Amino acid sequence: MIKRTITKMLAAAAMATAGQAAMAQDYNVHHSGDTVIAEVSEQAIMVRTSGDTTIVEIANPKKFIFLPVEKDKPEVRVEVGGPAHGKWRTVRLARERIDYYTPMRLAPGDKATLRFIGIGPDALALQALKMDDKWKKPRRD
User: Fold this and answer.
1) Bridge partners of residue 66, in order along the sequence
2) Does the pTM exceed 0.85?
């Protein structure tokens, strides 16, 4: 009886914490088959797969996207802007925890497309994307 009560209390606390985190980010996630749609304020993010590529489409993107990095994970190939605009880069995207974020500039426009090879559509990194119109390069003293 006590074990069951403690388990229920822990589950309620975890749900409350997750809800608070989602509200703090103003972030909603919707699943529909192979597609995950996340709404971050006025940005809508759609994640889908095509073969071995995970494609992220962002409506009304800001100037920068911040990709979550996990230092000890294998590199993932990332293309920002599609074949006509972007070039492939490598990033150690987060899968279990986030060590830091790395910024990438998005092309101006009402839609941005990112392609990832080497990570699935349900990865932590794609659930923890951040965007902003400003990025201040950190000082190195």
Assistant:
1) 103, 130
2) no
Best CA proximity match to 101, nearest among 74, 60, 66: 66
Burial (CB count within 10 angstroms: exposed 0-12, middle 13-18, buried 19+), residue 61 = buried
CB 112 within 8 A of CB 57: yes
Mean of per-residue pLDDT scores for the chain = 75
Closest listed residue to residue 25, CA positions, set 134, 136, 98, 130: 130
> What span, in angstroms and rounded, lies between the C-alpha atoms of 38 and 46?
6
More confident position, 72 or 40 = 72
CA distance 68 to 129: 7
Question: Could you give the CA distance from residue 64 to residue 66 in angstroms, rounded to a whole number?
Answer: 6
Please, are residues 75 and 88 in contact by the beta-carbon 8 Å criterion? Answer: no
pLDDT mean over 39-46 = 68
Whether the per-residue pLDDT at 40 is higher than 70: the answer is no
